[in-house]
Amino acid sequence: MLKVSDIKGIEEIAKIEKEIRDDMKKLFEEEISHNITYLSRAETHYRHKAVAVDASNIKIELEYTDACYIKCADDEGNVYLNIVVPTDLPEKAWINYKEKLKNEEPVIKFFFDFLSLTTWEDLTYIGGSNDEDQDSFVKILRDVTEWAVLVRVLTEEKRCIVLKDGLLRNKVIKYVKSNPNSAYVVLREKIKELCQNRNNVLVGIAKSGKLINIVKDIIRPYFEEYFTRPFAIRIPNSSRIMELSYNYIRYREGEITFGDNLYIVSFLEKPRLDNLCMIEIPGWQEDRAVEIIQVLYTIGIRKLPLHTIGLPIPIAHAHEQSKVTHLVSNLIANEIKRNLKS
Questions:
Q1: DSSP result, 265-310
Q2: Which residue intervals define the domain NurA in the entry (predicted)?
């Protein structure tokens, strides 16, 4: 008859489990419990606008070239970029295409002019002209477009909360520590000036990420005791939880972040571990962070469908307006083939 107690390794696994539980408990006590804020309806009212970008990962395959489709829209359905981008052009044609995009696509041209830049190399960590670099340019262009639209909205609106689909912290806009005029430094300072002069608020919201997963593990044993109503947990950039979440030290030291903290938030009346989101608020608005989060809570929270439950309604709408489906990619491929025949 099997004696479970005779099986090797059980004590070692139990010891590892206990060490992890003790560590999680320590993190909760030292970095979570005193950083919880419970949300209530805000008295401050702002207009709201959300910007989201989605890019197709499905190749539009033709005989001699591949392409990707990028669309950028806001929650009201305004479309700022609606473009098919080639991804395996010959070197000279690729260089010419990027220049044409920079000089003739209105939202991209606006962004270069806003930052007083003239080359892609000044703006971002752009690669060469091989197929792999052209593929990665699609993601770069998507993120650059999102920033361009955010800036455009901030220049046009007053007393407005502008929501970015995703965190504000950056790996795309170029940052050079030794250069105070590098693109990211200029972008951050100009956005700060816009927000202060026009009484706007910029917020980044992400639905997933390693930080969310780690916080879930830490708070799970305490969920029914501490988290029975809408809440926000402040996670400083300098915290151990942030260190466990992000290996990229420039994130943790704040060099390429807008906010000094991230907030793990549940907007649902009955919070659930699988519907948390992450919020980043710029450092110059940190003293109003809780107020801003409560304004988002007051605006309204999505309850269906499943993939947007718990998000502020404007960001959910923006995501839906910019979403790219398999059907759209197939329609584009068919339209290109039809043009070949005409």
A1: EE-SSS--GGG-EEEE--GGGGGGHHHHHHHHHHH-B---SGGGTT
A2: 50-324
Residues linked to residue 166 through DSSP beta bridges, in sequence order: 205
Give the DSSP H or E segment for 89: none
Q: N- to C-terminal Cα distance for the chain?
A: 79
CA angle 164, 170, 173 (to 5 degrees): 105
Give per-residue burial for 12-25: e unless 16+ CB within 10 Å, then b: eeeeeeeeeeeebe
Domain that holds residue 331: 35-341
CA nearest to 277, candidates 250, 301, 257: 301
Q: Which of 310, 259, 313, 254 is nearest to 289 (CA)?
A: 259
CB 203 within 8 A of CB 191: no
Instruction: Count how many domains the chain has.
Output: 1
Contact present, 311 and 318 (Cβ < 8 Å): no
> Where do we find the tokens 């390794």?
9
Residue with tokens 């996670």: 235
| SS3 (DSSP) at 84 | strand
Does residue 97 contact residue 138 with C-beta atoms inside 8 Å? Answer: no
Distance from C-alpha of 179 to C-alpha of 13, rounded to nearest angstrom = 50
Task: Please list the rounded mean pLDDT of every run of 10 residues in the chain (342 residues).
Answer: 79 88 95 97 82 65 81 91 89 91 96 96 79 81 93 93 91 88 94 96 93 96 96 95 80 78 96 95 96 93 83 90 85 86 72
Establish if 282 belongs to a structural domain.
Answer: yes
| 271 contacts 229 by C-beta, under 8 angstroms | yes
**Does 15 reside within a domain?**
no
Strand, coil or helix: 15: helix
- Tell me the pTM: 0.91
Is residue 292 within 8 Å of residue 201, measured between CB atoms? Answer: yes
> Which class for 339: exposed (0-12), middle (13-18), buried (19 or more C-beta within 10 A)?
exposed
Within-domain flag for 29: no
266 within some domain: yes
